[in-house]
Amino acid sequence: MAQLTRREISQQDYERVQSSTEFRELRKRFRAFAFPMTVVFLVWYLLYVLMSAYATDFMSNKVIGNINVGLIFGLLQFVSTFLITALYVRHSNKNTDPIADELRAQLEGDATSGRLEKGAKNA
Amino acid sequence: MPETPGEPVLNIAIFAAFVVLTLFITFRASRNNASAADYYAAGRSFTGTQNGTAIAGDYLSAASFLGIAGAIAVNGYDGFLYSIGFLVAWLVALLLVAELLRNTGRFTMADVLSFRMRQGPVRMAAATSTLVVSIFYLLAQMAGAGGLVSLLLGVSGAFAEGLVVFVVGALMIAYVLIGGMRGTTWVQIVKATLLIIGAVVMTVLVLAEFNFNPSSLLGSAAEAGSELEPGAQYGLTGTSKLDFVSLALALVFGTAGLPHVLMRFYTVPTSKDARKSVVWAIWLIGGFYLLSLVLGYGAGALVGPETILASPGGVNSAAPLLAYELGGTILLGVISAVAFATILAVVAGLTITASASFAHDIYATVHKKGARTETSERDEVRVARITAVVIGAISIVLGILVLRAGINIAFLVALAFAIAASANLPTILYTLFWKRFTTQGAVWSIYGGLIICVGLIIFSPVVSGAPVNAATGVSPSLFKTVDFHWFPLNNPGLVSIPAAFLLGYLGSILSKEKPNEAKYAELEVRSLTGAGAEAATQH
After folding, report:
1. Which residue has the higher pLDDT, A69 or B377?
2. Hey, what long-range contacts does B14-18 have (CB within 8 A, 24 or more apart)?
3. pLDDT tens digits, one per residue of B124-142
4. What is the fold of B8-369?
5. pTM of the model
6. Which one in A8, B27, B405, B501 has a CA-CA gap of 20 to 30 Å to B304?
C-alpha cells in the first residue's frame, strides 16, 4: 500500500489562494474560454436540431448528388466538435495550465513544509 | 434470406473465444485489488489514452452500434440525430466537468456533489439517482443482448431468451468481482478496439459496393426507403417535432451526468490525463459515429428497412444483417460477437459504478464511525462486491421482463440520458460554479429532476397508449393493452431538465442555511489547480 506522504492542505491555505490575484486570473481565463464556448456550441447544436424539426424543406435541398443541406449541416456538427476540442486543449496548455501548476506546487509545497507565506511570494 | 442467417455454432464459438480472452485479462489484472482506490478506480494508474479508449468502450454501447445503425436504416435522417447529440454532448464533459471532477472527487459522482454540502442527504440523493440511471442503462443493454441472440440463434422462446440474459448477467458479475475497475477497464479497451476495427471493415465493404461514391449509397438507401430528408420519424405532427427537440436536449445534457462515465475520470492519475482521456474519446467516438452513418444507410440500401423490421431482432438487427449481406456467416459471427462483447463490457462498467455508489455513498455513510481506515475501506469493498451480485440479479430479472417489448435500444438509452441530464447535471454544474448553491438546492434538484423525469416517462406513450406501428403491427408501448398516458412526449427532457435547474435555484435561494463559503473556496481552488487531488497508488 502507498503511504500518503503529503500533509493535508489547510482550510486557510485554500481561502488564501482563492483570494490571490493568480487564482483570480486562473479562474478568469478558465471561464473566459469555457463559458462562451459552451454557449456557442449549444446554440449551434440547437440551431441544427430546430432546423431539422421545423425547416425540413430547406434541409432537404440537394447540394451535391443525393447529399442534402441537412446532411452537410450534421457533418459540420462533427467538424465543430473536433475543432472546439482542439481549441480547448490549446487554450489549456497555453493559458491555464502554467498558473494551475504553479499554484498547486505552491499549495502542496506549503503543506509539506508547513510554511505559510501569506501569499506575499511575489510582492 | 433465411429467417436466421448464419451458423449458430460458429457464432457461439467466436463469442466464447472473446469471453475466454477477456476473462483471462481480467484475472491477470485482478492481482492488485486490495484497496478501495484499486477496486473502484484501478489505482488511478491508467494513461489518458488508455482511459480514453475505455471511455469510448463504455460509451459505444449496444445503443450506439446496433441502435443508431438501426435507427438510420429505418428512420433515415432522424436516426442521425442520435449520433450528433451523443457526440456534441462530450463538449459539456470536456469544457465544464471532467477535469474539475477528477480534481475534487475520489470514487463516485456523489463525492463531488456532497463536497461542500451536508454529506448525508446529498450523498443519499446522488447515490439514488446513480442507481436509477445505471439500472435504466442496464435494461437497454440487456434488451439489446436478447434481441441480438434471438436473431443469431433463431430462438424467440421466453426460456431461451431468458437464458441468454442470465448468461450475460452472470458473466458481467464475474468480470466485476474478479477484475474490479482495472479488469473492467481492460475489457472496455479490448472491446472498443474490436468494435472500431469491425466498423471500419464494414464501412469499407459498404462503400466498395457503391464504388466509394457516397451519393450513390444515399441514392440506393433512399430508393429502399431510408429517408434522406429530416422528418421521417419526428416530422409528422407538432408533438413529434417537440419530441425531437426534447430528445436532442436529453442527449446533449445527459453524457456529462452519466455516473459510469464520470467514474472513469478517477482511473487516471491527474486532471491533465482526464482531459487527454476526453479528447481521445471524442476522436474515437466521433469517428465511430461517422462510420455508423455509412453502416446505417448501407443497411438501408443493401438489406432494406422492411426486411430489418421483419427480422427476429427488429430494428436493432440492422448491423448484423448488413454484416451477413456483406461477408456471409463469418462476418456475421464476428460482428455479432463484437456486439455481444460490447454489451458485456458496458454492463460490467455499469455494475461497478452502481455497486461502488451503494457501498461508498450509502453503506459507508450510514456506517460512518470516525475516520476512514484501511479496515473500513476493505469492508466497503466487500459490500461493493456483494452489491454487484445483487445488481446483477436485479438486472437479469428486469432484463428478461423488458426484453420482449421490442423498443429501439438507442431510444431506451436516451431515457437514461434524460434522467442523468435532469437529476445529475444541474447539481454538478451548480456545485462547481455557483457559490450560493446549498444542500437544499442539491436535494431538490436531484430528487425533483429524478421524480419529474421518471414520472413523465411512466405517463408517456413509452409505457402505455402509443398507437400501433404500421410496419410491425404492434404498439411500441411497454404495456400494450392498457392506456394511462397523459404526457404526450416520449422523451421528457424538454420539461424535466429546465425543471431540475429551476428547483436547484429555488431550493438554494429559499433555504435558511448559508452556503459554506470555506468549503466552496476549497472546492474552487482544488478543482482548478488540482492541489490536494487523489494521487495514483503505488504498488
Report:
1. A69
2. B14/B333, B14/B334, B14/B336, B14/B337, B15/B336, B15/B337, B15/B340, B15/B341, B17/B337, B18/B194, B18/B337, B18/B340, B18/B341
3. 999 999 999 998 888 888 7
4. Sodium/glucose cotransporter (1.20.1730)
5. 0.90
6. B405
